[in-house]
From TrEMBL:
TM stretches of this protein: 42-64, 70-94
Protein name, per record: Uncharacterized protein
Keywords: Membrane, Transmembrane, Transmembrane helix
Source species: Pieris macdunnoughi
Length: 110
């Protein structure tokens, strides 16, 4: 129990909730990688984003074909898959932004 309390005390500090981070690489490099390339995580996040877009579009099409398209937004399941699409889109956007800026070796953290 003491280890959990120590971990929570370390992680849930006011400065941790700011939009600053010491090690920006944690957002665009996967924990399984041996190199410093952001391309593998970009590809994984891109595939996840495309799959979640396909799920949302197919959900809308299936509901529209049944003639109940106006009811699509009232179901929490549809909101869940929509938020999944948004979150994977943000992850893909972060990785794409890093990839467009060039190699990670040129990264300058303030």
């Amino acid at each position: 129990m003491g280890a959990i309390k120590k971990y929570c005390k370390k992680e849930f500090q006011i400065q941790k909730f700011k939009f600053e981070h010491d090690d920006g690489e944690e957002f665009f490099i996967g924990c399984f990688q041996q190199n410093r390339s952001c391309l593998p995580l970009l590809i994984i996040r891109g595939l996840l984003f495309l799959c979640s877009v396909a799920i949302v579009v197919s959900s809308i099409v299936i509901v529209a074909e049944t003639g109940k398209g106006a009811f699509w937004p009232i179901y929490m399941t549809h909101w869940g898959i929509f938020l999944m699409m948004v979150s994977t889109g943000f992850g893909f956007g972060i990785s794409m932004h890093r990839y467009m800026k060039g190699p990670i070796g040129k990264l300058q953290i303030k």
